[in-house]
Amino acid sequence: MTSEKPTMSGQTMIEFKDVHKYYGDYHALRGITATIKAGEFFSLLGPSGCGKTTLLRTIAGFEGISSGVVMIDGKDMVSVPANVRPTNMVFQSYAIFPHLTVEQNVGFGLRKDPRSKAEKAAAVAEALEMVGLKGYGARAAHALSGGQRQRVALARALILKPKVLLLDEPLSALDKKMREQMQMELIKLQRQVGITFILVTHDQEEALVMSDRIAVMFEGEIAQLADPETLYRRPNSRKVADFIGTMNFLPAEILSEIDGKVEVEAKGFGRLTLDAEQVSVAPGSSSASIGFRPETLTILFDGQTATDRESRAEVVEVVYYGDMTYYDIKLEGTTEPMRLSMRNVFGRPVLDIGTQTRVAWSPGALVLFR
Amino acid sequence: MKGGWFRGYTIAYLIFLYAPIVLLPIFAFNNSTTVAFPLNGFTTLWFGKLWEDPALHRALSNSLIIGISAAVISTALGVFASRASTRYAFPFKGGLMGLIMLPLVLPDIILAVALLTVLLGIGTPLSLMTVILGHVLVCTPFSIAILSASFQSLDHSLEEAAYDLGETPISAFRLVILPLVLPGIISSLLITFTISLDEFIMAFFLAGNENTLPVYIFGQFRFPQNVPVILALGTILVCLSIALLATAEYFRRRGIAKTGGKDTGGFL
């Protein structure tokens, strides 16, 4: 998602400065420093237990921090309790009040609002319409489906016009089809209201689809913070590369390093030079490897020639997916199979296992990890 | 014929359980001072005698005062304990909750004697207050058992959602937690009241000169001519108890239905 939004002002909405959180001896957040811009759709992505939900809850005010600073819209939140922070949350369980109707749920936060009853009712109706639940106001909350609860939770949070909307794995309880539909609706809704959305998710695809920027977290630390395209194309560590999509790793040897440009030799690829921005340095790693995504290698069929570089390879596994075919190939001189994906084109054969073929590639699509 | 055997067993069990209770109203309306078949004729004389007995009135009002007080106090304590045990983590939680629940299985007579010894030791005169104290001790575990189920089924996020939407901890409790556990609270009040109403041992040891209803009934059995009157009283008490417990169960189930939950047991 790199589309420009009229509401994106580029101002800082949330700022973490060296945030630490301990639960007893357990170090849940280990020095988080990051900024989230106003109007941004921001995701905290990581495996369970990485601290992403804890970090979200420090914004909401449900979780105190052991040291550091959390600022919302320029204000230090250290002594601001959850009920007066300019944030609202959509909970993983939705937390719809079961003893109230849909209307009463959506209007819950308006209790202290000085507006008249009629004005509040109009605001509730408007919020319900915005999330596609027009006419559901009088229903009992416990009689709703999962997707409908989700919408009520959204309306209930958005009606208060928060500066930041926090979403704690809001789609994880929905089935695949419903989830994909809600992803699209959330993106549209966010553009429409222009509020900063912060999403916690463990689903890398969901994060890539929905976010302007993503913070990938492991073990209480942000491993990489970037837009989806950068994360996908230039992951800064093998760990991030592994977590987001599929990436192949080929052992490589560094020959020389001049002005940031690195010359490497890898079996199967031969000798090549990579730019500084293609090189990521992970502390503690001793061996170097070249990483590439399955779609960056293309099988050359009879008569086709590579525009950049090409290598010889053998097909060792074929998985046919209808629109795509996944091949496992062994580049000449290597032993580990590499995953390669090809879009199927009418009239082009699917190769058999054991076929000797040629693959085209471009050094610019590679990443060096060391 | 496994099924037949079980059916016979079930019927025998139910007869053993309920036949004596069914006999109560039969003899309560029987026109004879001796409790024996054949029946003599229909009368409401014994119910009339009940009405005229000032000692009974006294015992009844004592029992109501004790029952209502014990129900309110033990339910209040039950709310605190259930909330604490389901919502917060604290050291020795399991052991503490176990100790609080222990009077449920301790012999009442041991509790009563122990309490009596302590009260006499510190020079507290026996009165309705001391009976209430004993009954709170007996009733609180029941209250906690009922209310823990109510608190346990609450999603913790509901409370956080209320804070998130601008409520303070106190108003969140009032607007969200209380309405959701209210059926449990009503159920607890009714059940603890019923338990207190027919509790004998504590009342017998701790009441001093005052009588409660069960103690009064026990005393009346010394006079054979009063037995039919007691049976009439028993008839009323059985009906009342069933009505109270049925009401308690109604509220408990309504609470579950209201929140769309699943029934996971209960007393009835």
Automatic annotation (TrEMBL), chain A:
Keywords: ATP-binding, Cell membrane, Membrane, Nucleotide-binding, Translocase, Transport. It catalyses: ATP + H2O + polyamine-[polyamine-binding protein]Side 1 = ADP + phosphate + polyamineSide 2 + [polyamine-binding protein]Side 1. GO terms for biological process: putrescine transport. SMART domains: AAA. One of its GO terms (molecular function) is ATP hydrolysis activity. Its EC number is 7.6.2.11. Residues 14-244 form the ABC transporter domain. It is an enzyme of class 7 (translocase). The keyword Aminoacyl-tRNA synthetase does not apply. GO terms for cellular component: ATP-binding cassette (ABC) transporter complex. Coiled coil: none annotated. The keyword Cell membrane applies. Pfam families: ABC_tran, TOBE_2. It comes from the Bacteria. Belongs to the ABC transporter superfamily. Spermidine/putrescine importer (TC 3.A.1.11.1) family. The complex is composed of two ATP-binding proteins (PotA), two transmembrane proteins (PotB and PotC) and a solute-binding protein (PotD). Part of the ABC transporter complex PotABCD involved in spermidine/putrescine import. Responsible for energy coupling to the transport system. This is Spermidine/putrescine import ATP-binding protein PotA. The gene is potA.
TrEMBL record, chain B:
GO terms for biological process: transmembrane transport. Residues 60-248 form the ABC transmembrane type-1 domain. It comes from the Bacteria. The chain crosses the membrane at residues 12-39, 59-82, 94-122, 128-151, 172-195, 229-248. This is Spermidine/putrescine ABC transporter. It is a multi-pass membrane protein. Belongs to the binding-protein-dependent transport system permease family. CysTW subfamily. Pfam families: BPD_transp_1. It is found in: Cell membrane. PANTHER family: PUTRESCINE TRANSPORT SYSTEM PERMEASE PROTEIN POTI. Gene3D superfamilies: MetI-like (1.10.3720.10). One of its GO terms (cellular component) is plasma membrane. The lineage of its organism: Bacteria, Pseudomonadati, Pseudomonadota, Alphaproteobacteria, Rhodobacterales. CDD domains: TM_PBP2. SUPFAM superfamilies: MetI-like. It comes from Cypionkella aquatica. Keywords: Cell membrane, Membrane, Transmembrane, Transmembrane helix, Transport.
